[in-house]
Design brief:
By secondary structure, the protein is α/β, with parallel strands linked by helices. The chain has helices at residues 2-5, 7-12, 32-36, 49-55, 115-128, 142-158, 179-191, 234-237, 280-299, 335-353; strands at residues 18-21, 25-27, 46-48, 59-62, 65-69, 74-77, 83-84, 88-90, 94-95, 108-110, 134-138, 164-168, 195-197, 202-206, 209-212, 217-219, 222-225, 230-231, 248-250, 262-264, 269-271, 314-319, 322-327, 330-334. Helix 5 packs parallel to helix 6 (142-158). Bound molecules: flavin-adenine dinucleotide. Residues 20-23, 26, 29-30, 32-33, 64-65, 91-94, 111-113, 143, 146, 232, 234, 266-268, 278-281, 283 line the site of flavin-adenine dinucleotide.
Length: 357
């Protein structure tokens, strides 16, 4: 986002900039579940990337990168012509794997791309307007918690047929988090009648049906996949150095360990010095370093190292205007937690949406 905001400075230095993305808009995932629950409109949570790029004199290509050839410094696209580069920045994020899905994909939605949640919202509203349905969410992490809470909000606000919501949490709900946060998550879900199934992983997902490792089969009208994310597949496809999760292996300068003209940030990288959680907080902390290092590489100046910093604040949007906040030993839930998240997220959006004006 910082590089996009400062795109004009590359142009002013005499460079040509091309931004490649599959959508004219970039959706901010931190507010995605809130959009699902109708707290936010799509406009509230998206940046007009194409507009911002072209306004500053850059070139926007509506396409998807499939792989690159680092030897000839060429980027290959899904549909368009290959594009060459001198310096490349990877910010392609992560995706939710669909490995378990067999057969058709009707009424199956994943937590990412965020645009999918809008389609899911429309479908949920359509179905619950005239009947009671089963909605299942596969995954036991924060996105599962947030999707469940915001589906509940969506249905409660509509006030017609309340769906039966079930979370298939795999091992345990929010297993990576302190007990206090976990207990708050259980309380929030259970008081709303949301069922949590633990100690049983999903094995196969088909339209309308989930089969667990234990053999039990569950019917579901709508299924959400929230099974965690993996870095973009571009790096494996391109034989670039990767970390154990398949993310682009980068050194302390956020620079590819083998090709010094390639950089990256966010969910799609594997930071060599220490593995980083796939949270927006790190993408945001990397932002100024990434921008500086892209400029410095083009201008022959010194690179800055990235320091991941200490612990970070996490706030989960549990729907109904409530949240769970945690930073170190400070943990609380309720309306104030969501209010703080809403304030931070809207402020973040405003800063970058300013670019559109
Ligand atoms: C539901 C949900 C809620 C979350 N809430 C929070 C939160 O509250 N706080 C927090 O810190 N983190 C949160 N996270 C994690 C956070 O979203 C990510 O860590 C963050 O978005 C990473 O930023 P990014 O720029 O690397 O990737 P992304 O935000 O995923 O952006 C990647 C971009 O690259 C584009 N792209 C993808 N593939 C290609 C390709 N092949 N070619 C070209 N372009 C491509 C995509 O369209 C997208 O615009 C949440 C995640 C999810 C799924």
């Amino acid at each position: 986002m910082v590089t996009l905001k400062n795109l004009h400075s590359f142009i002013e230095m005499g460079h040509k900039v091309t931004v490649i993305g599959p959508s004219k808009y970039h959706y901010y995932s931190g507010m995605g579940p809130g959009m699902l629950g109708k707290t936010y409109t799509p406009d509230d949570i998206r940046f007009a990337v194409e507009l911002v790029v072209t306004k500053q004199g850059g070139n926007f290509v509506l396409d998807k990168v499939v792989k690159i050839d680092p030897a000839s410094k060429t980027v290959f696209l899904e549909n368009g012509e290959p594009i060459t580069y001198d310096v490349l920045s990877f910010n392609a994020g992560s995706y939710v794997p669909w490995d378990q899905v067999t057969g058709g994909q009707t009424d199956i939605y994943s937590a990412k791309p965020i645009e999918t949640l809008l389609k899911a919202q429309e479908r949920v509203l359509e179905l619950i307007s005239h009947k009671t349905i089963n909605i299942s969410i596969i995954g036991g992490g924060p996105s599962s918690l947030e999707i469940a809470g915001n589906i509940w909000q969506l249905a409660s606000d509509l006030g017609k047929h309340m769906p039966a919501i079930t979370i298939f949490a795999g091992s345990r709900l929010m297993s990576r988090f302190p007990e206090k946060i976990r207990n708050m998550a259980y309380k929030s879900l259970r008081t709303r009648g949301i069922t949590i199934i633990e100690n049983d992983y999903s094995k196969e997902v088909q339209s309308g049906k989930i089969t667990l490792e234990s053999g039990s089969v569950h019917e579901a009208d709508i299924i959400f996949l929230a099974v965690g994310v993996k870095p973009s597949t571009i790096f494996k496809e391109s034989n670039l150095p990767t970390g154990p999760d398949g993310g682009l292996l980068v050194n302390k300068y956020l620079q590819c360990t083998e090709y010094p003209e390639i950089f990256g940030g966010g969910d799609c990288i594997y930071f060599q010095d220490q593995p980083l959680d796939k949270v927006g907080v790190y993408a945001v902390r990397e932002n100024p370093v990434l921008f500086h290092n892209l400029v410095s590489t083009l201008e022959g100046n010194e690179l800055n190292p990235f320091d991941p910093g200490g612990s970070y604040l996490l706030i989960f949007n549990t729907g109904g205007g409530k949240g769970i906040l945690g930073k170190n030993s400070l943990i609380f839930d309720g309306r104030l937690a969501f209010w703080i998240k809403d304030y931070i997220d809207r402020k973040f959006m405003r800063e970058f949406q300013e670019m559109e004006k």
